[in-house]
Write a structure and sequence with these properties.
This protein is of the alpha/beta class. It has eleven helices and nine strands. A hairpin with an 8-residue loop joins strand 3 and strand 4.
């Protein structure tokens, strides 16, 4: 008889744990029934409370030949991103993994996630694409979202064209301190969609540099496609300027269902475009191919954000100059006081 495998041992442990719990529940209900003087009531089944993460940014999957509606709410996450977050790597310790292995609530939550993933058809995203709107999820707004209402763009970790041979980099570091036009896509068809937003006046604004930059994020969750993309890094480099190599990210992990819902990405075959300010907040968003009137809202929003960025940087420079002036004055007073003390000591020694 072959020795038991680790999976078989783990299954036996889970079954024994559930059996002990059911035995304890049966004994508890029996003791309560004997101690009660009233008519015993039917015991209620054990239903653990599961807290499924929900956000007001969830968008329904558009059906075929649907008419896209304007975006009416903020996209993103409620907390600011930080370097190293949302890496997709399991950093739990052995004790935490052991506790999670015997946590019945987490087993039910994981079962719900697996059921949702298995029930999703393989060609679902392709089946809802039509020749008219080409999978467009929503219509881009004509104005920027206010800063106090906007939510944050999440952080992702992946390699870039500038350092494909070294460690992964963080997207929040590349976007910090500048206005960023972020494009998220997977595949050449979605890449052509996001390129339709960058043309004419928007291309001229990006060429001017200053406070506006472009960040590209391609999502390749399968190892084979990520490896093929890594092999063709030379062609991707030739299609971009050298200063743009460090802002082209290839992401394999950290792009789960909740992150997609936060960003409004309900179709993985469609490209999405975001205007992110210097603090990492999503102030504008677009999906699919650029339609008539949408590029004007993008250009006006980018200009407005660049103006606000210059005002903010100018105020920070003034504050830094004022702080430097105060420090210089204090240093000058200290040197003057030291000189006076030295002269007094010298006069006292002569006398």
């Amino acid at each position: 008889m072959p020795p038991p495998t680790p999976l078989h041992l783990r299954t036996q442990l889970l079954l024994s744990h559930q059996l002990q719990y059911l035995t304890h529940l049966r004994l508890t209900n029996h003791s309560h029934r004997l101690a009660s003087t009233t008519t015993p009531s039917k015991p209620t089944p054990f239903t653990p409370k599961i807290t499924t993460p929900t956000t007001p940014t969830t968008l329904p999957l558009p059906q075929k030949n649907h008419k896209p509606l304007p975006l009416t709410h903020a996209l993103g996450q409620s907390h600011a991103p930080s370097p190293g977050s949302n890496s997709g790597i399991d950093t739990r310790s052995l004790s935490q993994r052991r506790d999670d292995a015997f946590n019945y609530d987490k087993h039910l939550l994981r079962r719900r996630e697996l059921t949702s993933a298995i029930s999703r058809p393989y060609f679902r995203d392709m089946s809802v694409l039509d020749s008219l709107h080409k999978g467009k999820t929503f219509v881009a707004p004509a104005r920027l979202l206010r800063a106090h209402v906007a939510r944050y763009f999440p952080n992702f970790r992946g390699y870039t064209l500038a350092d494909a041979w070294t460690a992964d980099q963080d997207t929040c570091v590349a976007m910090r301190g500048k206005v960023s036009l972020v494009s998220v896509f997977s595949g050449q068809w979605a890449e052509r969609q996001v390129k339709s937003w960058v043309g004419g006046e928007m291309e001229r604004l990006l060429g001017e540099g200053g406070g506006l930059q472009r960040v590209e994020i391609t999502v390749e969750e399968t190892r084979l496609r990520a490896a093929l993309l890594w092999c063709f890094c030379g062609g991707l480099k030739r299609a971009r300027r050298e200063e743009e190599w460090g802002r082209f990210f290839v992401i394999r992990r950290g792009f789960g269902e909740q992150v997609r819902a936060d960003l409004g990405i309900v179709n993985g075959k469609v490209g999405y475009v975001y205007l992110v300010d210097w603090e990492g907040r999503i102030r504008w968003a677009g999906s699919g191919e650029c339609e008539e009137g949408e590029r004007e809202g993008l250009v006006n929003g980018a200009r407005r954000l660049v103006e606000q960025w210059r005002e903010e940087m100018g105020s920070e420079i003034k504050r830094a100059a004022e702080v430097r002036k105060v420090v210089d004055n204090s240093e000058h007073k200290d040197k003057k006081a030291q000189g006076q003390n030295a002269s007094k000591e010298m006069k006292g020694s002569v006398a």
